[in-house]
């Protein structure tokens, strides 16, 4: 990137795009960014580290999604209203969001491997204790502590994957994010039948195989440095890129509101319609699995067609599918739901790599904004969904939610078509 250019290629801007003018003296050029790590053996077309981080992401997010599949059981056991259930969800999302504001910049300045290793261990250990909760407060505390471990992992892992991804960062991030999305999809399929058969008090036993698997995977995480020398780090480094990052971040927040609202309350809606906890868990698992497949395809499509185009079209296509899934009966509803989940999930890895391309500095901090802060702010809307559900019914609340991706798609029209990595 030449000294007279902005963070994005102006040749790639569409007539409707806008980009804040940046003082060339503020732009960080390559010398402040560490060189790419030594070339690694490619496995399935990506560096081995990407698969290691993806596997860790999957295990971490299996336990990170323990709350929603078991919510139909927590509600009667702990006397939760839908509003209280949404408040607990918001509490853990916001706690994780605030923590990522600390862990992301820390990964830029310190040793990201330590955070990437310790985070999943803490998350699995504490999240598995959720079934032992005997009060709303106890449940909230257990989930919040576990969420802190997950918060240490997420921005750090995304920054590591961006660092080692090379010229195919979109594909690498898709593989990494797909691991987490598959973990989210596995969670309801695993936890709902397990707890229905053994009972809530036996959830801690599930941590044992997960920790054994992590012990094998985590030793392969490389000791990557994200920055060195006098390179700007933290939020100060992002000031030249504030305008396009703010637009993208707003779109990510809206997408997150929809994703969290559906994943939190779909099990409740389905059990109210007569499904068992296991059947609802399998249906939501199919919806989340479709999102993970969408995430796997989103990165390669973005590498080829441009991230803005992929994000906008994916969001637009998800709207009629999610809306129709809530009103049509029978198996067709599940087909529409999974299709909507596919398009909604395809945007997640693209959002992250697009943000790294717009602001090619302080990758840990950028990841914390797009993952942690966006998910935390999005999580604040979950109690609102619960309140609306208590007031007018859960189905109307989710129908309103299904229209929001169109608003997010509209915001992307002011973003640059493509952006260039400086590293």
Any overview of this molecule?
With 423 residues, the chain is mostly helical. It has one domain (10-24, 43-414): Growth Hormone, Chain: A (Up-down Bundle). The chain has 16 helices and two strands. The chain has a two-stranded antiparallel ribbon with strand order 1-2. Strand 1 (42-43) and strand 2 form a beta hairpin. Helix 4 (112-127) packs antiparallel against helix 7, helix 5 packs antiparallel against helix 6 (169-198) and helix 9 (277-305) packs parallel to helix 11 (331-345). 57% of the residues are buried.
Distance between the termini: 9 Å
Q: Which percent bin holds the helix content?
A: 55-70%
Total strand count, please? 2
Instruction: Label the overall shape.
Output: globular
* Spatial order of strands in the largest sheet: 1-2
Short description:
This protein is mainly alpha-helical. Helix content is 70%, strand content 1%.
Write the layout of secondary structure elements.
Elements: E1 42-43, E2 46-47, H1 48-64, H2 67-78, H3 82-109, H4 112-127, H5 136-164, H6 169-198, H7 207-217, H8 242-272, H9 277-305, H10 307-325, H11 331-345, H12 347-358, H13 363-380, H14 382-392, H15 394-402, H16 404-411
Antiparallel strand pairs: 1-2
Helix pairs in contact: 1-4, 1-5, 1-6, 1-7, 2-8, 2-9, 3-5, 3-13, 3-14, 4-5, 4-7, 5-6, 5-13, 6-9, 6-12, 8-9, 8-12, 8-13, 8-15, 8-16, 9-10, 9-11, 9-12, 10-11, 10-12, 10-15, 10-16, 12-13, 14-15
């Amino acid at each position: 990137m030449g000294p007279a250019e902005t963070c994005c290629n102006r040749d790639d801007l569409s007539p409707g795009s806008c980009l804040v003018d940046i003082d060339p003296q503020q732009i960080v050029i390559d010398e402040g960014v560490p060189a790419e790590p030594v070339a690694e053996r490619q496995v399935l077309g990506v560096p081995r580290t990407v698969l290691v981080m993806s596997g860790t992401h999957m295990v971490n997010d299996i336990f990170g999604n323990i709350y929603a599949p078991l919510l139909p059981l927590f509600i009667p056991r702990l006397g939760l209203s839908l509003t209280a259930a949404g408040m607990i969800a918001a509490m853990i999302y916001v706690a994780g969001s605030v923590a990522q504001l600390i862990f992301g910049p820390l990964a830029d300045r310190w040793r990201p491997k330590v955070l990437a290793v310790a985070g999943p261990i803490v998350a699995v250990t504490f999240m598995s204790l959720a079934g032992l909760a005997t009060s709303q407060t106890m449940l909230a505390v257990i989930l919040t502590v576990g969420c802190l471990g997950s918060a240490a992992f997420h921005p750090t892992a995304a920054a590591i994957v961006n660092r080692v991804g090379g010229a195919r960062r979109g594909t690498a991030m898709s593989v990494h994010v797909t691991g987490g999305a598959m973990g989210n999809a596995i969670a309801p399929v695993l936890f709902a039948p397990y707890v229905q058969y053994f009972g809530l008090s036996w959830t801690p036993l599930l941590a044992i195989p997960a920790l054994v698997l992590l012990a094998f995977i985590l030793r392969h995480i490389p000791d990557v440095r994200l920055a060195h020398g006098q390179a700007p780090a933290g939020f100060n480094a992002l000031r030249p890129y504030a305008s396009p990052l703010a637009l993208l971040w707003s779109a990510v927040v809206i997408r997150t509101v929809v994703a969290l609202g559906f994943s939190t309350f779909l099990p409740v809606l389905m059990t109210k319609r007569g499904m068992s906890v296991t059947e609802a868990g399998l249906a939501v698992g199919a919806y989340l699995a479709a999102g993970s497949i969408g995430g796997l395809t989103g990165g390669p499509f973005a590498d080829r067609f441009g991230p803005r185009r992929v994000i906008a079209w994916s969001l637009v296509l998800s709207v009629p599918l999610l809306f129709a899934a809530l009103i049509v009966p029978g198996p067709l509803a599940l087909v529409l739901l999974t299709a909507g989940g596919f398009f909604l999930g395809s945007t997640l890895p693209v959002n992250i790599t697009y943000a790294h391309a717009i602001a090619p500095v302080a990758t840990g901090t950028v990841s914390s904004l797009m993952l942690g802060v966006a998910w935390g702010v999005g999580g604040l809307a979950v109690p609102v969904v619960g309140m609306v559900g208590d007031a007018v019914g859960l189905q109307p609340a989710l129908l309103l939610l299904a229209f929001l991706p169109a608003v997010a798609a509209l915001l992307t029209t002011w973003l640059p078509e493509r952006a260039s990595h400086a590293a």
